[in-house]
């Protein structure tokens, strides 16, 4: 089963609109004509219009880093799927571990967001992954099973065709520690198994599961060589156009 890889950048809380424009000025020529993989960049909300404008007509898609499941209303600080679509986003990250850790995101809010993103026709990148204590206590499998089960709850295979999952072991994010390709592969296989239970084998076979956590130009090739790894979600190393281009072209 060959799945087109998705190489996605998560800028987190970095860059202003001007800095976003600068990034695309340097990045786009480096990946021009690269169609082996799908490429997406997820900047902060305030940079989205600048990023969409800069990437117009290129092979780079733009996504949000989060969203709210209601369409509009008195929800101070939130952004809806309709708003993301209106500025030209096609992708959205959901349930990143930093949202879970610092902003009270739960498995249930991930599920609500995933349903809304799929209904809107966005490509959701749902993040799952264990923290260090869970890994050390041999709880990785339980945690991944629970996160998938609850994220996928009450969503049909027919609705989930655009779903992308990112496996991001929290101990590997921003720490310089990367999961070994073997270890990531095992987690991905487990996630694919959960997707098969929720959505059926056919969708699970097509499901792209990205790896995230200290992906760098130096380790991208070995990770991407794994049959189970269908792309990368890149934080720190995606902020520099040359470094992200090197990862995309691993
Ligand atoms: P990192 O972040 O590449 O800086 O480890 C990945 C992520 O949090 O998505």
Task: Give me the secondary-structure topology.
Blueprint: E1 6-10, H1 17-31, E2 38-42, H2 48-55, E3 60-64, H3 81-87, E4 91-94, H4 97-102, H5 107-120, E5 123-128, H6 132-136, H7 140-151, E6 164-167, H8 181-199, H9 201-206, E7 208-212, H10 217-224, E8 231-234, H11 241-248
Parallel strand pairs: 1-2, 1-8, 2-3, 3-4, 4-5, 5-6, 6-7, 7-8
Helix pairs in contact: 1-2, 1-11, 5-7, 7-8, 10-11
Bound molecules: 2-phosphoglycolic acid.
Overview of this protein structure:
With 250 residues, the protein is an alpha/beta fold. It has a single domain, classed as Aldolase class I (TIM Barrel), CATH 3.20.20. The chain has helices spanning 17-31, 48-55, 81-87, 97-102, 107-120, 132-136, 140-151, 181-199, 201-206, 217-224, 241-248; strands spanning 6-10, 38-42, 60-64, 91-94, 123-128, 164-167, 208-212, 231-234. Residues 10, 168, 173-174, 212-215, 233-237 line the site of 2-phosphoglycolic acid (PGA).
Give a brief description.
This protein is of the alpha/beta class.
Based on the model shown, name its key terms:
250 residues; alpha/beta; TIM Barrel; 8-stranded parallel beta barrel; 11 helices; 8 strands; 43% helix; 15% strand; binds 2-phosphoglycolic acid
């Amino acid at each position: 089963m060959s799945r087109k890889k998705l190489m996605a950048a998560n800028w987190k809380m970095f860059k202003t609109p001007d800095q976003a424009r600068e990034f695309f000025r340097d990045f786009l020529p480096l990946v021009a004509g690269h169609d082996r993989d799908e490429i997406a960049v997820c900047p902060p909300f305030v940079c989205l219009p600048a990023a969409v404008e800069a990437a117009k007509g290129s092979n780079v898609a733009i996504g949000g880093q989060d969203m709210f499941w209601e369409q509009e209303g008195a929800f101070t600080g939130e952004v809806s799927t309709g708003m993301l679509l209106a500025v030209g986003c096609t992708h959205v990250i959901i349930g990143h571990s930093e949202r879970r850790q610092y902003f009270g995101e739960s498995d249930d809010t991930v599920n609500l967001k995933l349903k809304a993103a799929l209904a809107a026709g966005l490509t959701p990148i749902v993040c799952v992954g264990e923290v260090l204590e869970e890994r050390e206590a041999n709880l990785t499998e339980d945690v991944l099973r629970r996160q998938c089960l609850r994220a996928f709850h009450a969503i049909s295979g027919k609705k989930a065709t655009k779903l992308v999952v990112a496996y991001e072991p929290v101990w590997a994010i921003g720490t310089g520690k990367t999961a070994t390709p073997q270890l990531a592969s095992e987690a991905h296989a487990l996630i694919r198994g959960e997707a098969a239970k929720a959505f059926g084998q056919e969708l699970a076979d097509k499901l792209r599961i990205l790896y995230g956590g200290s992906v760098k130009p130096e380790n991208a090739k070995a990770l991407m060589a794994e049959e189970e790894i269908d792309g990368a979600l890149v934080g720190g190393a995606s902020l520099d156009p040359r470094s992200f281009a090197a990862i995309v072209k691993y």
